[in-house]
Amino acid sequence: MVTYNKNDFNDSFYEKIKNSQSWPGIYLFKYILPVKSKSLTSIKAIFSNLSPKFTIRKSSNNNYQSLTVKVEIDSAKSVVDIYTKTSSFKDVISL
């Protein structure tokens, strides 16, 4: 059985994004969630102090929606912190 260590993933992800661009900079967060999900409002609230630009697209069958959040963010650590917060939503897939 393969075990999943969230801290190892976060450390690896942090290293990758830290070197992927200069900080502060524009970053795109992407999520998939059911259209009827109540998590959308909560996710939007996480970004409220960052002057986000939200784009929402619904699937062809209107069952799911994608949420793209474009923000200027100060550091790679802040990106990991936001993904950690949004990972608590059980009906949301982070991309």
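[next item in queue]
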Amino acid sequence: MAIGSNSSNNSSSKVKGYFERISESKRDFRRRLAALPIAEKLRLLDSLRERMLAIRRGSNAVATRKTIVQETPSER
């Protein structure tokens, strides 16, 4: 048995447990979404669409501010 292998197994077990909890949480969330009436699902979709548009508008504003172009006077 290698030195430190016990702590490695313990760490691996913690990580595995962490991901199992995440997976179970995702399954639970999907079950709850599936059980919702279609009208509620459509309301959620509208809300997500509005959020996406707000994020997109915000990111475009940042991109616009970053791309400042200065014109230099042309010599004639």
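[queue empty]
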